[in-house]
Amino acid sequence: VLPGGAGGKSVVAYDKTSGARLWSALDDRASYTAPMLVTLAGRRQVLAVTATRAAGLDPDSGELLWEFPWKTEYDINSALPVIVSPDRFVLSAGYDHGAALVEISQSGGKLSAAAIWNSKALKNRFNSNALHNGIIYGMDEGILAAIDAATGERKWKGGRYGYGQFVMAEGYLVILSESGELALVKANPGRHEELARFQAIEGKTWNPPAIAAGRLVVRNTTEMACYRIGL
Q1: What single string gives the DSSP state of each residue in 157-178?
Q2: First-to-final CA distance of the chain
Q3: Are 175 and 194 in contact (CB under 8 A)?
Q4: pLDDT tens column, 8-36
Q5: Long-range CB contacts (< 8 A, 24+ apart) of 11-16?
Q6: Is 94 helix (H, G, I), strand (E, B) or coil?
Q7: Which end of the chain is more exposed for a tag (fewer CB within 10 A), N or C?
């Protein structure tokens, strides 16, 4: 978990059975991301994004394996990284910061991080992205955009959904907009292709939708709804 704070308590690991603290690491302020257990450059690690950097930590000891500066306006990092290859991932942040493709490499038993590209084509304030067939789809300050994961080149930008959220499902984006509308958008690298939209719930909505067993569940601070989906 990422409670944040000085004294080496920014990232903390606990035993899932007893609750005992196993280790703690870093002195960073917390941001709004969750830690991810990943394998990069052949090394299993915890990928953590704090208020000022991305870092890889040994999951058994908390040892810092590598770091990459990622300081944004107001120290706000909310979007989760997207793993795009065995040694690369994409970071993104809003407030005119942008995105970066980061590569983790190994030399002499040591890991290091370096940027492959930086781009202002995708600026996620708190909406995480999705990868499909080499294209990253995400909300560029409230407008849906698609960028090439390998180059950072914007393929298109269109469709205003505010600071809503979405999930990727079988090549489609199921988007829950900030105003409570549901939209179905095809993951098309060539253009914005919205297939359907309707008002699902009322009021400001910053919550991700969820899909399970042929049901789509949406909610916000005042309302919740469940829809049957499928043919």
Answers
A1: EEEE--S-EEEEETTEEEEE-T
A2: 40
A3: no
A4: 899 999 999 999 999 999 999 999 999 99
A5: 11/35, 11/46, 11/48, 11/50, 11/55, 11/57, 11/62, 13/46, 13/59, 13/62
A6: coil
A7: C
Nearest-CA neighbor of 186 among 176, 194, 198?
194
Q: Tokens in use for 68?
A: 């990459």
Tokens of 65: 């394996």
Mean pLDDT across the stretch 140-168?
A: 96
Q: What is the DSSP letter of 80?
A: P
Looking at the chain, the whole-number percentage of residues with pLDDT higher than 90 is: 91
Extract the tokens encoding 67. 């770091």
pLDDT in tens, 179-203: 999 999 999 999 999 999 999 999 9
Whether 73 shows a pLDDT value over 90: the answer reads no
If one counts every other C-beta atom within 10 angstroms of the C-beta of residue 224, the result is 11
Residue 229 main-chain phi, psi, to 5 deg: -125, 160
Strands, sheet with 224-228, edge to edge from the N-terminal-most edge strand: 210-212, 215-219, 224-228
3-state secondary structure of 73: helix
Q: 20: burial class by Cβ within 10 Å (0-12, 13-18, 19+)?
A: exposed
- Cβ neighbours of residue 60 closer than 8 Å, sequence gap 6 or more: none
Q: Number of helices and strands (H, E) in the chain?
A: 0, 21
Per residue in 101-121, pLDDT (tens digit) is 999 999 999 999 999 999 999
38, two tokens: 């990943």
Residue among 180, 183, 171, 102 at smallest CA distance from 137: 171
